[in-house]
Specification:
- This protein has about 110 residues and is an alpha+beta fold.
- The chain has 1 helix and 5 strands, in the order E-E-E-E-E-H.
- The strands form 2 sheets. A 3-stranded mixed β-sheet has the order 4-3-5, with no helix packed on it.
- Strand 3 and strand 4 form a beta hairpin.
- It is flat and about 85 Å long.
- It starts with a strand and ends in a 28-residue tail after the last helix.
- The model has no long low-confidence stretch (mean pLDDT about 80).
Length: about 110
């Protein structure tokens, strides 16, 4: 927002254009129109719906208590963070610098 003075009168000017909404979505409580959105059910099926906010995709959560015991354990195990595997490099260093002294140039 900038202010300009014109013969003692203060005028406030807001620079709104088409690029002001391109950075983030417009934050409104109600939207005038509905937006095409993809709704993903827990079983993986999709439905095209009209949603009141500009969203591209909505994924519904899965109720893990309706799954079998084995499937529930597998899903809960997948949520846990993966353990990092550490590799220890065991390098046998048999380099002998005295073998290459004869190739060095003496000044």
């Amino acid at each position: 927002m900038s202010t300009k003075s014109l013969l003692g009168t203060l005028i406030q000017i807001r620079f709104l254009n088409c690029h002001s909404a391109s950075i983030t979505r417009p934050h409104r409580l109600t939207y005038k129109r509905t937006y095409p959105t993809v709704l993903v059910n827990p079983d993986g099926s999709t439905i095209n719906i009209k949603y009141h906010e500009p969203r591209q995709i909505i994924k519904l959560p899965l109720n893990i208590w309706i799954l079998s015991e084995a499937e529930r354990k597998a899903r809960l195990e997948a949520r846990k963070p993966k353990k990092k595997v550490r590799y220890e490099d065991d390098i046998d260093d048999s380099f002998d610098a005295n073998k290459y002294v004869k190739y060095l140039k003496k000044k």
